Amino acid sequence: MASRARRNAATTISKSGRLSVLRWRSFLRLESRNSHWSMAWDGRHPYQNRGLRMSNVDRVAHSPSRGAPTRLGRGFRGCAASWVAACAMGLLMACHLVAAGEPGLMPPYVDKSTGEEDAIRRRDEWFIKTHALDRTHDARGLRAASMQDQQRIASRAAPELLSTSPRWQSVGPRHIQFLDWAVGFVAGRVSALGVRPGDDNVLYLGAAAGGLWKSTTGGTTWTRLSNTFDSPSIGSVLVVAGASTNQDQIWVGTGEPYAGGCYTYFGRGLYYSNNGGASFSSRNGSGLNQLNLSVINAIALKPGTGQTLLAGGFGQCGADGSISGSGIYRTTDNGLTWSSVFGPADVTDVIYNPNNGSIVYAAANGGGVYKSTDAGDHWSQLTGALPVGAAAGSVRLAMAPSDPNTLYALAGNPVGLYKTANGGTTWTLANANACEGQCDYNLTLDISPTDVNTVLVGTIRPALSTNGGTTLNFITERFGSAQRVHQDTHVVRFSSSNSKRVWIGSDGGLWRSDDLGGNYTNLSDGLNIAQYYDIALDPRNPDRVYGGAQDDASQVRSDGDNWAVTVQTGDGFMNAVENAIGADNGRRVFQNSYPDDTSMPSVNLSANYGAPNTFDSLATNGIGSKEPFPWVTPMAVTQGMLFIGSNYLYRSATNQNPSGWIWTKVSPDLTGDGSSISVIDVTRADGGTPLRVYVGTDNGHAWRTDNALAANPVWTDISAGLPASRITGIAAVPGNADTVYVTRSAFGSAQLYRSSNAGTTWQPGGTGLPNVPATCVIVDSENSARVFVGTDIGVYESVDNGSTFTPMMLGLPFGAVVSTLRMGGRHVLVAGTYGTGAWKIDLVTDRIFADSFGQ
């Protein structure tokens, strides 16, 4: 470790604690060699004055005897200085500060080299809360019923090809250019991969929230297959080769396996195709013979049969958020009927012995590894060196294709790699430190088709062993500009016909290597699977779209359907573009990410029209300590003024120097219980006075101020008449701010409320909206009677002031989870989705659709 530190470091801390300068390069590393702690700064993306994040990345790489990685420290407030300085806090730490005269603080370089356990947890909590999954019985079933209603309505309309209604068109991303990093471009989270046996050109890719995709060109081009699915979330894919590719059998398990709790919300069981994916049918049985899995992690076909399969996964979510029905189910009639053969257990893998269909193995989280010798009728837990029960933790299992008696398992806490060479009778611990981090989220493995000792393990990064797991060598670089493959690995896969070829699927897309990780081909181009939390439009041009995506940072649509990362923020969230006069119109672009480790908001500003690498991080002067800034921090802008919210509303002038940025608290606690503001609606973009602002909270409160630019704005509680559930959207009618709409995250009651007197009274509306959470609302800029609502299953339109709604889905992926709706110039509506990218629709039906980016 010390030698590599000397090669790369600008400064290092000696064992005695003295600070010595070695040489200046673009990378700063400070470390304590005796404790294996390190802190790093990539000079191209310096940390702001919150201080450097301390990590144990070197401990993972160089201390294999140690346990699974944990964060040793958090970001801390730095020292004001014009050069890099050292701060004594028990151990010697360092903080990078902005040199005197710098125009602002560079955006925080989000170091993900040791994982993001806390961020993943907060992301899960955010999703569950914003979709009302923590307080709704059978949300999965309610969503499914709503999608069936939507399909029935669509079946009564004109055929899609003959319809004259406005049609949604994709605006990408076809791919997302990741700054100038070696990774190139990214797409979104890949959760499953199926490869046609013997033909590596035919791939079936499952996305976390973007559906099923097929390539017949080895991944250079992709086609979305799952427009008939009522789930956008794919957990597993099994490909059974037919006489030709259009006779292949494809089994697809839905429900994304890399998130806990009620993410089963999206799972809809099993789908089957006997024509290479040209069409699919549901194969879940019914009644007492039903497949009761909402997350299907594994599908296995019994050797020598075409009708008998096992499916394993997680069960269904109950009213209290618990999951029941988990385990393994068997069908002997190609999925028409099912019976439970193992459980309850959260099954992650099911594997038949290809030479003996009576022998089956299974892995289960919190249980361990199991074996059946009677085709699944009875199971025994494999013990010996293997962890069992709660001590097993997250568990994965793989069988060597060249020897079915050789299996590897990942299990335990810390996660170890275990091996058996005798069908599970005995096991040995091959490697005690097989997890680089966050292995409740990313954990997978596979074995070479020709060599039982060549193993791939995927955690944060993929690692390769050629000696039976004794040593694991990372085959991609750690997080940073040199990494060639996006981290957070969910898929590692050997080719069945080429032992040197592997595929790596991660939070950024899909990569292939033909030399076991020496070189990579990026296969993410054309996968429109980005999970956008929010989008915003350039006021000069609605075809220029800004977005914040899950684990793929803040972005901008840069060229046609190609997007580009603007600032590396980990998860990118809210976006706001200032509508100004003349050349300043669209010049200032604000994008934010999750709050830092001290609960301070993370907001970045470009004063150069949002161009990549032109963002500075805004200082947090004036913001109170430890306020509940939410995971997705709400943000809105009017000409000259930016607003963000914790449980208080803050404002700041937009023409400040980022390094001296000052925020002013302009409200009391608007939640009453320390919850968070969820949405801010600024009713006019020109910054004129008086400025009315509406605010909604995640505990169901709504507020209004009619003088948001005053020294001490006066606030009116307008919650009376609104149910106590999270407010997801507020939209005032353009030119008439007294008429305002509110959407809610709720099942079982009205998702939309309307007021014609600025919130003094409210009336439920929205007849025809589906019984799922509504996520956003916007009013047509040219027709105030026309209202659009985004929901968990698509976009709905009203032409009678929000009284009644019908689906507005022509061209939009079936079941799209709409996160944001924005109205742009030229009468264009743009939707951001959580899993299928961004889409736009021309609201003028009698003109040819045009795009200034020349699509």
List the helices and strands and how they pair.
Blueprint: H1 2-8, E1 11-13, E2 19-21, E3 27-32, E4 37-42, E5 54-55, H2 57-62, E6 85-89, E7 91-95, H3 117-130, H4 139-155, E8 169-170, E9 175-177, E10 185-186, E11 190-195, E12 203-207, E13 212-215, E14 223-224, E15 234-240, E16 249-254, E17 270-273, E18 281-282, E19 295-301, E20 309-314, E21 316-317, E22 323-324, E23 327-331, E24 339-342, E25 346-353, E26 356-365, E27 368-372, E28 380-382, E29 396-400, E30 403-411, E31 416-420, E32 428-431, E33 444-447, E34 455-458, E35 462-465, E36 473-474, E37 489-494, E38 502-506, E39 509-513, E40 521-522, E41 532-538, E42 541-549, E43 554-559, E44 562-567, E45 575-577, E46 589-593, E47 602-606, E48 615-617, E49 635-638, E50 641-645, E51 649-653, E52 664-665, E53 677-682, E54 693-697, E55 702-705, E56 715-717, E57 727-733, E58 736-744, E59 752-755, E60 763-765, E61 774-779, E62 787-791, E63 794-798, E64 806-807, E65 818-824, E66 828-833, E67 838-842
Parallel strand pairs: 9-44
Antiparallel strand pairs: 1-2, 3-4, 4-5, 6-7, 8-67, 9-10, 11-12, 12-13, 13-14, 15-16, 16-17, 17-18, 19-20, 20-23, 21-22, 23-24, 25-26, 26-27, 27-28, 29-30, 30-31, 31-32, 33-34, 34-35, 35-36, 37-38, 38-39, 39-40, 41-42, 42-43, 43-44, 45-46, 46-47, 47-48, 49-50, 50-51, 51-52, 53-54, 54-55, 55-56, ...
